[in-house]
What does this fold into?
Amino acid sequence: MPMNQHILLPQANELGQRCIHAFTSLVPASLCAFYRVDERLEAQDFLLYRMTAQMHRAYLEHYRHLDPLKPLNCAASGRSVVSLQLGSAQQGRRDTELYQGFLQRNGVCDVVEIIALDNHRPIAGLSMLRDASLGRFNPNELAALHALQGLLELAARSPFEHPDRSTDERLQGLTSREREIALLLRDGVCNKTLAQRLEVGLPTVKTHLINLFRKVGVRNRTELVGALFL
It folds into this structure.
């Protein structure tokens, strides 16, 4: 599946693609998600590899808070490469079972998180997910990911040292779906492409746009992009 979300900063978009390519070339993965970490230690502005929009939307709306590998938990672990097994051991049984159920329904059997740090604070991350055809990550593969993590950290510090905080603040008032639409509109996509990316029909796209324009207080796409990104 094509990568179907865009990171906020153009240079970070390129960084995400390069990181996904480099990591999966060394250690195969079925699905990946590259993201930046905001000041609240929440993952934002995902770049997806082979992950459906439906799965990602379900994660954001229903399972993000149960994720044992979310940036806050990874930071608390004191590790920069965190396995699902290690992360799950740090949270309650009920939350672990619910999250494991979500993964299993999407054919995922294992996950590892690679975190880039700046002064001990997470600034970016890469989720690598595997299905049964690849099996669980073995110790040698985890060691290889540890070796690459330092390169991810060096690369990530440059585009994330001076993020556009005003843009972040303007986007915080939007839902995850509204943010996704706004980022796609910033990239100049047409309604047909929006429908394909969101996996909805054109009438639904038009409804989303009307609601988003009303929420931001603008009349059209040009005004929306100006209000949120300029």
Remarks:
- The longest strand covers residues 121-130.
- The two ends are 31 Å apart (CA to CA).
- The longest helix spans residues 139-160.
